[in-house]
Structures are given as C-alpha cells and as structure tokens.
Design goal:
Radius of gyration: 13 Å
CATH superfamily: Nucleic acid-binding proteins
InterPro entries: NA-bd_OB-fold, Rep_factor-A_N
GO molecular function, one term: DNA binding
Strand content: over 45%
Structural class: mainly beta
Protein name: Replication factor-A protein 1 N-terminal domain-containing protein
CATH architecture: Beta Barrel
Length: about 100
Amino acid sequence: MAVNLSANAIPAIINGDVDAKPLVQVLDIATIQSTKNSQTERYRLLLSDSVSSHHAMLAAQLNEKVKTGRFKKGTIVQLLDYICTSFQNRKYFSSLLLLNLIFD
C-alpha cells in the first residue's frame, strides 16, 4: 500500500499551523527517562514528512502503543493533536497528543 506523506508539513507546524492533520513517518524512537524523579518513561520520535524531519515527544498516555509494538520505526501516522513549543531557541513538537495509525 503506497502512502503519500504530507510534504513540507513539519515546517508548517513549526511555523504555527495547528490545523494540519499531516501524514508522517516515524524514523526513530528513543526512550527518555523523566527528569522529575518519576518512573514514567517518555519517548522521543524522529518524524519525517518526506522532505523534512524533526524530533517530537510522545504524550505519556500513548506510551502503550510503543510498548506493545503497534507504534515502531517505519510506522505511518496521522498527527491529529499536537503542541509545538520553543525551548532554548529551538522549536519542538512538545507532545503528540493524538495519533491515528495509518500503516505499520
């Protein structure tokens, strides 16, 4: 099944587009330990829109999708709800709150 990713969606999101519901691909997933003495693991993703790539943090309520293998490298997802913030003069997707798995 061929899937067309949403080319140039990542720069649009970084520049403030909160209404896009782009298709992106997960290129990498890294486990991050929480810094607040919590046992909660967090996942940092590297996402691609076929033109650009960018890091994003997965919301903790979606961790189970990674742990069960439903969400892995190569998975195509539609971003439905996300927040983009600045930190140390760089823009980040601070949380991916809602995803629709398209193809894994």
